[in-house]
From TrEMBL:
Belongs to the UDP-glucose/GDP-mannose dehydrogenase family. SMART domains: UDPG_MGDP_dh_C. One of its GO terms (biological process) is polysaccharide biosynthetic process. PANTHER family: UDP-N-ACETYL-D-MANNOSAMINE DEHYDROGENASE. This is UDP-N-acetyl-D-glucosamine 6-dehydrogenase. Its EC number is 1.1.1.136. Residues 330-428 form the UDP-glucose/GDP-mannose dehydrogenase C-terminal domain. One of its GO terms (molecular function) is UDP-N-acetylglucosamine 6-dehydrogenase activity. Keywords: NAD, Oxidoreductase. It comes from the Bacteria.
Length: 436
């Protein structure tokens, strides 16, 4: 049995070396936070190019300034691809992807490969924390046996926790420190050490009774969003048919001071979390003979949104005496949400593919994505169109898919021939603007 108090004390005195495995949207802000409060941080990633960039003081994520990375480099942050160095770390915080495979089932390969990669270098006195979003049971079923494989005993000489990340990239109102952090330990000792790790960096740590409860908490949060967005997307279709503006209705309902939370409709779900995470629970629930009907239903409604937007585009062109085939269409905003450069699961990309499949000639404009990046399943040899008056007027239609603040909405309204607005940016009814 190691002296647990000594481990706790190492975090409290900020003498511990924090290891962050997976230096992405989640891992990097966490690294910066620990660095800012005086911890040495070792970042471990399999991607040599990211590691080189970070070690050179550069950033590869738009909303994380390079100045922050270079400052961290000067004050105790280092990145490496060498997993052997995991043994130096007192905490190993895993922030690796948890996507779905092509059958829309959890792809646990990143979590498993990472755990296998650090496994030979685990030692007594360490705490291992999984932050990746995942189904209830992952920590117990996948991490626990691997962590104990070499003879270490969780809760006695090594500690295992699950603490979901709640990062909201691009949201200026919250930062790592001010977002309360839920944490579940495999044993009470694990929880105690885990709290000591996180309470240095986060204002409010919220302990729950198990790693499973913590895993399910994160899924509930994201399922809540997916289901409510599905609901409001369905309401949008009904409102549209009845000649009612759904955005006006949501804003009016949101004046109720209790019992209502506003969610806004859009062209579909995007990002690494909301379209994906709910299906982690769907998959696991099947093991228990249960069907997650709300998740499936909202998934169905949300996944139909790009087709709905396409239908509105075709209606608008039709009214102007045009077919989509051969028309030039400009998609505004291809990041999955406003003011970020993240294109993962973006519904804009699906809309672009649908336009192309119908014979339309598609282009895009996005101030955050200057060149269409190489994506695993989609590709367009395109770069962002400049939003000049002349260029806007040259397209048969524009589809407003992501409402970045950087767009000049007055110019778009004045110059575009037809606007298909999936974000409720244009509230006053105008002949050349269609709500989608
Ligand atoms: N992006 C968000 O807003 C957000 C918010 C909350 C939770 N999450 C969850 O956090 C987790 C990470 O998401 P992300 O957006 O940071 O992903 P990301 O793709 O931005 O970053 C993951 C990093 O892990 C690295 N990596 C992959 N395999 C590895 C391995 N075997 N060993 C070490 N590093 C490896 C990748 O190179 C990459 O740098 C996911 O489970 C996600 O669901 C993400």
């Amino acid at each position: 049995m190691t002296d647990m108090n000594a481990v706790v004390e190492k975090f409290k005195s900020r003498q511990a070396l924090i290891g962050i495995v997976g230096l992405g949207y989640v891992g990097l802000p966490l690294m910066l936070r620990y660095n800012a409060i005086g911890f040495n941080v070792l970042g471990i990633d399999i991607d040599q190019s990211k590691v080189d960039k970070l070690n050179a003081g550069q950033s590869y994520i738009e909303h994380i300034p390079a100045a922050n990375i270079s400052k961290a480099r000067e004050t105790g942050f280092e990145a490496t691809v060498d997993f052997k160095r995991a043994s130096e770390c007192d905490a190993l915080i895993l922030c690796v992807p948890t996507p779905l495979n092509k059958y829309r089932e959890p792809d646990m390969s990143f979590v498993i490969n990472t755990t296998d990669a650090i496994k030979p270098y685990l030692r007594a006195g360490q705490v291992v924390s999984l932050e990746s979003t995942t189904y209830p049971g992952t920590t117990e079923e996948e991490l626990l046996p691997r962590v104990q494989e070499g003879g270490l005993v969780v809760g006695e000489n090594i500690y295992l926790v699950y603490s979901p990340e709640r990062e909201d990239p691009g949201n200026p109102n919250f930062e790592t420190r001010t977002i309360p952090k839920v944490i579940g330990g495999h044993t009470p000792n694990c929880l105690e050490v885990g709290i000591a790790l996180y309470e240095q960096a986060i204002d409010q740590v919220v302990p729950v009774s198990s790693t499973k409860a913590a895993e399910m908490t994160k899924l509930l949060e994201n399922i809540h969003r997916a289901v409510n967005i599905g609901l409001v997307n369905e309401m949008k279709i009904v409102a549209d048919r009845m000649g009612i503006d759904i955005f006006e209705v949501v804003d009016a309902a949101a004046t109720k001071p209790f019992g209502f939370t506003p969610y806004y409709p859009g062209p579909g779900l995007g990002g690494h979390c909301i379209p994906i995470d709910p299906f982690y629970l769907t998959w696991k629930a099947r093991e228990y003979g249960l069907h997650t009907r709300f998740i499936e239903l909202s998934g169905e409604v949300n996944q139909a949104m790009p087709e709905y937007v396409l239908g509105k585009l075709m209606d608008g062109l039709n009214d102007a005496g045009k077919a989509l085939k051969g028309s030039r269409v400009l998609v505004l905003g291809i990041a999955y949400k406003k003011n970020v450069d993240d294109m993962r699961e973006s519904p804009s990309v699906e809309i672009m593919e649908l336009i192309e499949a119908k014979g339309g000639v598609v282009a895009y404009s996005d101030p955050h994505v200057p060149v269409f990046p190489k994506m695993r399943e989609h590709h367009f040899e395109l770069s962002s169109e400049p939003l000049t008056a002349e260029n806007l007027a040259s397209f048969d239609a524009v589809v407003l898919a992501t409402d970045h603040d950087k767009f000049d909405y007055a110019l778009i309204e004045a110059k575009a021939k037809l606007i298909v607005d999936s974000r409720g940016k244009y509230r006053t009814p105008t002949a050349h603007i269609i709500k989608a």
